[in-house]
Amino acid sequence: MNLALRASFLALLLVSCSAGDSGEKTHPPAPLSDSNAPPEPTPQPAAPEAAVTATNFIDGPNLKPSPALRQWLSENKGRTIRLPLAIRMSGFDVGPAWIGMDAGEPGEDTIHVSLDQGALGVGLLERLGPLCDKAPSTCVVWLQGVWGPTVSGGPSLEGIDLPGPHKEPFSVREVVGRVQSSDTATVKIAASND
Asked: d(Cα 11, Cα 17) in Å, to the nearest integer?
């Protein structure tokens, strides 16, 4: 590099560094415009979370006996259903969950559920907060969704001896509301297969 070019470079460097020290605001140079370049896209607001379509639900099978309910759920994977679920709330996450109408301890033949939140834009912890007592507590709510995982084809945990009760995946699509004492102890199933 020749001496004159080095001197010009150092002078430019010193001027740009000294401008920052004097308290003056420097602005980056404006980009050169290219008349052939497409215009920058205007940012669009994020789309709201898709609402679950209004569907009529009818009573499905009773919650007891559990083996019959487990069989029915397995035979109706892919159907939109509503389940009454007791969910332990820790304040940091939604904990163990099981099919039931009250917050009592689950029985020996209770169907335990793994709550798959993959289809929700806002997690269950935030959705259940306004409905449930302050954590730690057990919240009993109706959840709408599909029996089985949101995404299938992943690794299977079948045959692996995990601690605690076996959990069946339930893909949650919507929080419907709290279970009321007047509600029937049945699964609710969409009147039409959506």
From this structure: 10
